[in-house]
Every structure is written in structure tokens, then in C-alpha cells.
Amino acid sequence: MEKETIIDLMRHGEPEGGTLIRGWQDDPLSETGWSQMREAVSEPASWDRIISSPLTRCFRFAEELSEKLDLSLSTEDRLREIGFGEWEGRLPAELYEEHPEAISNFWRDPVKHTPPGAEPLEQFKLRVEAAWEDILSRHQGEHLLVVAHGGVNRLIIANVLGIPLVNLFRMEIPFAGISRLRIGGGIPRLVFHCGSDLV
């Protein structure tokens, strides 16, 4: 019988600068962000390895954790967040004030309403899903921690559950939030957790 693959998707903590429209902008974690992530894994699971987005807000924590737990760490460039183009680094409130219709349209239907200069959602989907398929192929039967971004983790969950791309932002993933996916045994499953029961 094929061994089940377990993947814990972890979003980075709060970056410096607070809540901005932040995709490829490479801000480090704030002190709060470091605390959020360390607290989220205060009782670590029995991971076999860690895979991280190369962006600083993910990789620096993944690097620290891999050294602490003596785990192999690799980066996957295709797990970078979606690029927001001209909206990068902007406060959502500013965008609602300056471009209320454009930002409302984006959240309602991000497939048809790409921000100026941004990465189209369909293109984002293709690169993240390619990375996901490669991860599953290379690490079958392992228990992985994948440290990435809100958009990336939403996309992977949507892929596994068959959620339409247009509904991607109906999922709310908090800073340092962890979502577990079990792959194998018929159908893939999203597992909800209570407290620190990640073992």
C-alpha cells in the first residue's frame, strides 16, 4: 500500500511594515512575525524536511528552524508569492481610496481583473501547481513543512479541494497559519487542527 504524504503549509509571519499589498517585495519578518512563527511550531511535528519560498519573510525562519531541528532545507523559487505589480508595497486603505473599483473588482474576480503590471492569476496558478506536482513526485511518503505565502497556500489548497480560481481569496489564512494536507489513500484531504496537535 502506498504510504501517505503529509504536507504542512505554513504562511510566513507579519513582515516589517505591517499589512501591505506585498507580493514579490522582499520585506523581512518583524519581531512580531518571528514570534508568531516560533510560537506556531513550539511543539514541532515529525517533519522529514523543510521546503521554503526564497523570499526573506519565509526563508530566514525556515533556515532557523531547519538548523534547530537538524532538517534538510531547500528553496523552491516557484513558491514565491503572486506579484502585485504597481500595487506592491501599498496600504490596502490607500488603494481603496485611490482606486476603489479596481481593487474591489480584483478581490471579487481576480482572474479577470489583474492589477496594473501584476502577474496574471492564471500564470501564478501554473507555476505554483507545477511546483506542487514536483514536490509530491519527489517526496512521496514523506512529511514535509512548506513555508510559503498566503496566496501560494490558498492556491495549493484550492487545487487539492477543487475550488474555482475565482474564489481563491475567500480563504483567510492568518500570519503563521498552518494547514495540513494528506495526500494518498484515495482522495487528498485538508485537515483542520486544534491548538498544537500537529504531530
Automatic annotation (TrEMBL):
Residues given in the record as substrate binding sites: 57
Active site: 12 (tele-phosphohistidine intermediate), 81 (proton donor/acceptor)
A GO cellular component entry from the record: cytoplasm
Domain of life, source organism: Bacteria
Pfam families, sorted: His_Phos_1
Molecular function GO labels: phosphatase activity
Signal peptide limits: none
Protein name in the entry: Histidine phosphatase family protein
Organism this protein belongs to: Solemya velesiana gill symbiont
